[in-house]
Amino acid sequence: MLPLKMKRTTIKDLAEMLNISTSTVSRALKDHPDISSSVKLKVKEAAEMFNYIPNDFAINFRKKSSKVIGLIVPEISMFFIPSIIRGISSVLNKEGYHFFILSSEDSYEIEQENIQTCINSRVDGILISLTKQTKNLNHFSKIKELEIPLVIFDKTIPQDLHDSVIFDNARNSELCAENLINHGCKKILAIFGDESLEITQTRKESFLKKINESENIECKTIFCESAEVVKEKLETLLKENSFDGFFAMSDETLIGLHSSLIKRNLNNSNIKVIAISEGTLPKYLDEDYEYQINDGYKMGTIAASELLKIVQKQQNDIHKYVSTTHFI
After folding, report:
1. How far is CA 193 from CA 77, 171, 180, 275, 286, in A?
2. Model pTM?
């Protein structure tokens, strides 16, 4: 025999059971001083017996607030994103907000669908990291029209409509180049990510600018969209070339580099490896690897905090808003 489906108990159900008005039930559940202790007791006993659960969505809808945030990321991966989510969660949970996560799978079309899902879900705000296919913010027009607060983090494009939280990619790359120069490296391989991304170009330009300030340094650059592509390209490069310094612009490129160095037993040689990293991975790969940290947890906390500030300003009818870029 199939189990019977249990209907969710409502305030109306409790009112009918106790033969009192729904408003009396509602006020009793909230310990309103106008309701007698005996009525409060009966209502709370009935609510407990029949597993009454308050409808948070309905309550918040009346307050014109859902207490829900939509989080949109390009993809769910083991690199970097989990630490950002932990940072976001730490802030939102503390402030009584829930959030749901949508993956755009690095597709502009799915990103559009995810934005519509957030709108339909009546979220209080949106946190988004853009896909590599996103070249403009035309699909954000409905968000602007509905005045839904939005903060862009990590992957963004030049814009001045919304707050953004990004790493100081230029400075981090410069520091990595400086490290290799100071170590005396003369033949360097710099491994960058997707060539079409602004973050890649920023890191490349700053890295090479610093390297080119020094004489007699040869630097080769390659672009790889994944750890697997790094391994494929290094299969040939490391056969034909000898490098004394390596730069990986991310954890993903670093893991591909590490695998290739292990294969050729180069990890034990006198080479210098430095990366831009979230900070966890290099410690487990090789204790000699150095890194310039990109703290995903910190980015998540800052992005969530900035979004809640905008939400609060809006709810307090403070309409003056100027977009800001926050560098970490």
Report:
1. 15, 17, 19, 12, 21
2. 0.74
